[in-house]
């Protein structure tokens, strides 16, 4: 349809029809702009103006309520703007939490509980919401609801796993119940639980958490295996330490580091990288001693361990390996060594000791005067309570100055056939 603008009044009518909506838009946009300007200012008058200019904006109402609650310290005055905010936007968990906080200060537990329930309903999986809800229920003595919210935290926020697990254990120190009802199948949650139980010296309970951790396919760092493994040895739980290493090694692609019937010593020829944990070699820096993997001189494989001594105070080379054994059993040990010129009284020895009683089961002769590869061998019988040995290179006599180089290679320990 064609509109003929053949008169002045028709032209003015059309222009007016176009201008009026534009003016309305400008006015509305201007009000919103001004409201935004006042809403960013932390003064009471500005916040009130913002809420008046844009009454449909829930954020301005909530900011006004926070001013009354946090700045004016008048939680009673905060209730009305907080309630206006949740009516305008009932899907904001933050608004409901602010309202619940005001009711808490006022001692209105009934309305606080309702507001908190609305916050959880509005955002049931956000960790921050669950954390605040859990702490509220904890204060109220509602342990069941607190544990339920802590599970949401553990499921969705790994950085809060440690404190969440601590609260859960404080509420209900029952490893079976927490694993069944609270701790989700996530590696971060299990590791936090495992760490807590180690701190509490709950060694038997750690085995249950470890089993749950192994049942989940989620990845975690090898250092946690080393830490738990060493904890078990420190608490003389050799059987669980063996199980942990047997389960963890294949999972981390370390099956070559498992002891076998052919050789209970792991990485005896130093052909693998030294893990410094588990049943592999472990090392610690010692005064006047340097440890080096030497690919230029070896007996078997493609490198040996070079131990350089240079100075006083040497008691141990700083390299050791734990070996799980059976009690009342005969074992055969062998290794190869080579050295350069040694200076000083005495010399290094290869020693196998009970890791707990420190009884010496095997001690080699001094590893000196061998400019070529030479074997050190022997056999011994474990005691009735021996379950774990430690193999290391010690200095006899301890402490006196020594200078020289020692290469060691091809360590082997097997059960003697009857």
How would you describe what is shown here?
- The protein has helices at residues 8-39, 44-53, 58-71, 75-88, 93-106, 109-122, 127-140, 143-156, 161-171, 175-181, 187-199, 203-215, 222-234, 238-251; strands at residues 282-283, 289-294, 304-311, 316-324, 330-339, 347-354, 360-363, 374-381, 388-396, 402-415.
- The chain is of the alpha+beta class and 418 residues long.
- The strands form 2 sheets. The protein has a 5-stranded antiparallel β-sheet, with no helix packed on it. Strands 2-3-10-5-8 form a 5-stranded antiparallel β-sheet, with no helix packed on it.
- Helix 2 (44-53) packs antiparallel against helix 3 (58-71) and helix 8 runs antiparallel to helix 9.
| Number of continuous helical runs | 14
Structural class label: alpha+beta
> Per CATH, which architecture of the domain at 282-415?
Sandwich
Radius of gyration: 36 Å
Beginning-to-end CA distance, first to last residue: 112 Å
Biggest sheet descriptor = 5 strands, antiparallel
> Beta-strand percentage?
15-25%
What is the residue-averaged pLDDT? 85
Low-confidence segments, ≥5 residues, pLDDT <50?
Answer: 22-35
State the order of secondary-structure elements, H for helix, E for strand.
Answer: HHHHHHHHHHHHHHEEEEEEEEEE
Name the CATH superfamily assignment of the domain at 282-415: Galactose-binding domain-like
Q: Order the strands across the largest sheet as they lie in space.
A: 1-4-9-6-7
At CATH level 3, the topology of the domain at 282-415 is Jelly Rolls
CATH class value of the domain at 282-415: Mainly Beta
What is the β-strand count? Answer: 10
């Amino acid at each position: 349809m064609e509109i003929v603008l053949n008169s002045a009044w028709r032209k003015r009518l059309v222009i007016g029809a176009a201008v009026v909506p534009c003016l309305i838009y400008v006015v509305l946009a201007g009000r919103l702009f001004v409201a935004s300007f006042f809403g960013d200012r932390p003064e009471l008058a500005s916040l009130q103006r913002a809420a008046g200019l844009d009454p449909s904006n829930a954020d301005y109402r909530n900011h006004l309520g926070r001013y009354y609650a946090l700045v004016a310290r008048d939680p009673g005055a905060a209730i009305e703007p907080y309630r206006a905010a949740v009516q305008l936007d009932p899907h904001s968990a933050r608004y409901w939490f602010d309202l619940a906080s005001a009711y808490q200060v006022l001692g209105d537990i009934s309305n606080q509980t309702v507001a908190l329930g609305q916050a959880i309903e509005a955002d049931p999986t956000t960790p921050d919401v669950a954390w605040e809800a859990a702490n509220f229920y904890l204060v109220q003595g509602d342990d069941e609801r607190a544990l339920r919210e802590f599970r949401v935290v553990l499921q969705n926020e790994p950085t809060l796993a440690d404190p969440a697990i601590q609260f859960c254990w404080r509420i209900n120190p029952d490893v079976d119940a927490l694993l069944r009802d609270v701790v989700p199948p996530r590696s971060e949650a299990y590791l936090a639980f495992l760490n807590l139980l180690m701190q509490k010296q709950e060694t038997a309970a750690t085995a249950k958490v470890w089993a749950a951790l192994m049942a989940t396919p989620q990845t975690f760092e090898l250092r946690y295996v080393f830490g738990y493994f060493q904890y078990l040895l420190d608490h003389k739980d050799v059987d669980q330490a063996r199980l942990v290493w047997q389960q963890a090694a294949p999972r981390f692609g370390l099956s070559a580091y498992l002891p076998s019937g052919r050789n209970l010593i792991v990485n005896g020829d130093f052909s693998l990288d030294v893990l410094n944990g588990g049943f592999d070699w472990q090392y610690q820096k010692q005064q006047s001693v340097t440890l080096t993997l030497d690919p230029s001189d070896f007996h078997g494989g493609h490198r040996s361990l070079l131990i350089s001594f240079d100075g006083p105070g040497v008691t141990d080379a700083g390299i050791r390996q734990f070996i799980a054994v059976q009690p009342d059993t005969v074992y055969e040990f062998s290794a190869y060594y080579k050295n350069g010129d040694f200076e000083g009284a005495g010399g290094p020895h290869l020693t196998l000791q009970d890791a707990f009683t420190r009884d010496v089961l095997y001690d080699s002769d001094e590893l000196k005067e061998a400019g070529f590869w030479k074997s050190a061998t022997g056999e011994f019988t474990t005691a009735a309570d021996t379950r774990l040995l430690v193999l290391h290179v010690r200095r006899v006599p301890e402490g006196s100055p020594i200078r020289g180089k020692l290469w060691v290679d091809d360590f082997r320990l097997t059960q003697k056939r009857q």
